[in-house]
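I am writing to request your help with a piece of structural work I have in hand. Thank you for your consideration; the sequence and its tokens are set out here:
=====
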Amino acid sequence: MAERKLAVVAIGGNSLIKDKQHQTVQDQYRAAQETCHHIADMIAEGWDVAIGHGNGPQVGFILRRSEIAAKVAGMHELPLDVCGADSQGAIGYALQQNLANEFRRRGMQKSAATVVTQVLVDRDDPAFQNPSKPIGTFMEEAEAKERAAKDGWVVVEDAGRGWRRVVPSPLPQEIVELDAVRELLDAGIITITVGGGGIPVIRNADGNLEGVAAVIDKDFASSLLARSIGADLFLISTAVEQVYLNYNTPEQQAIAQMTVSEAKRYMEEGHFAKGSMLPKIQAIIWFLESGGREAIITNPENITRALKGETGTRILPD
């Protein structure tokens, strides 16, 4: 019997939206279809796969609809944790249906399922004292300050474009549904989980789980998933084919392979942007330092080639 190969594939929420002209649910479904085709190639090569995904744009759309409905029709607004759950279901649906269609087309006896996933965070995480993640729509100053007073929001002025709500981005500590995820993977079911970084929850004074208004970095949550299930490979599917030094400058240089030590040095030298590549590299370092074998960063259309070593950026333990 062949040795089991287990991978976590993290898909960016932005990768499901090609551009501003292709933002509809149907457009996102077609983008998911393309990504699932490449993930199915992996599965056909013998990989068992758990899939994490981002949800930033999608949660933004849900919040926007909620805010408009509240103003126009007096509907109740949706809490942020519920928006996260909604997006997990919708994106998971698109991914599992596309995977099922791929499996049927290829004659593969496989199935996929989505787990609406809660991720425990520490209620004493310093992030709660320093909310930094913008969410929702831009507001006029008066409305922003009214929401701050009425609803306890933290609001900031955003580069002259208006005011926005900001929420904490705490580190993920534990995947609440991990046992269910393991059972599905052990049964050979492709499992979509920790969507959008997972729904952030804390344990309250009674020891019960309780949702909080926060956003967990999806790469950090996918890294925790990969460590928790003992994955061999952590693959981050993003907007670029490879990781670059001196990105977007005349000195731009692609990195085909690097070690953890080299990755740390490049981080210290400031090569990776805080809002994009830096968390991906950090997430991979945590995975490899915890016993992971290898990690890859590439874009969806190059997943198969990257697995063969033809492109992408491969990161290895020291």
Q: What stands out?
A: The mean pLDDT is 94. The chain has two domains: 5-120+172-316, 131-167. The chain is about 40% helix and 25% strand.
